[in-house]
Structure prediction request, 269 residues.
Amino acid sequence: MTLGSEFVVFDIEAQVAQFRCIYSNVSTLSYHFPPRNTVVGILAAILGLERERPNNEGYYGLLGRDKCGIAVRMMSPVRKIQFTVNYLDTGSSGLVDKKKITGKGRRKQTPVEYVIGAGISRLKYRIYVLHNDPYVRERLREKVEKGRSVYPLSLGPAYCCAFISFVSDDIVDEQLHDAQPHQTYWVVTVVPEKALKSIELTEVEKLQRSGQSLRIVREENLPPDFGPRREPLPQGGGNFYFEESGKPMPLKLNPVKIFKTKDGYGVFM
Prediction:
């Protein structure tokens, strides 16, 4: 990944979110944080980019990981809620029975899951973006500084409305660094399992003895990247680790690119 310098950092907030799990078929389960493809869609909405058309490569190519580095940090404690929705049974085998769509057919009770802030807090995620095209980077910075986007923003479905705010003082060092495998890093962003060498449990125990606590969670089976025509790519996806309220996690990392924030280190998704 060859990227320029100058991060664009912003927070995105909402009352409720839903990031549907790819392995969730009938029931609608959600990840705790937005996958990379979701963040790419958010960036495209801010910039006013469209999906691929015959004469337009679309935003998946423009915001691919070879051009754009993306990292996500949890900025508020989160929890999940689940309830049942009565969906109208319109038929099976992909065929809609016209007699059933009048509302006279039976219902299917389907579990639906959402992510909300723990306590009274709003959901808040911090997004770090590093793009190798100065024009794209500056246009994105201009939009987020004004707190505006070309298209409406949401954290998942359209009714999970969201808004953004620019963050100007989080990045300490604009340069990317190679993680050293024998050094412990306090990481604040979500971390791909493939980038993680080990969790430093001795440091976690020290925090616990001092009355502090870390809740490191493993999020499983995130979707892979999308390419042209939304075809899945081999890059990305897999399992991730995160601290549920964004506290720094003591980790040893495989050789990956990292960046320095005021609270710790960040790793790209």
Remarks:
- The two ends are 12 Å apart (CA to CA).
- The first helix runs from residue 36 to 47.
- The chain has four helices and 16 strands.
- The first strand starts at residue 8 and ends at 14.
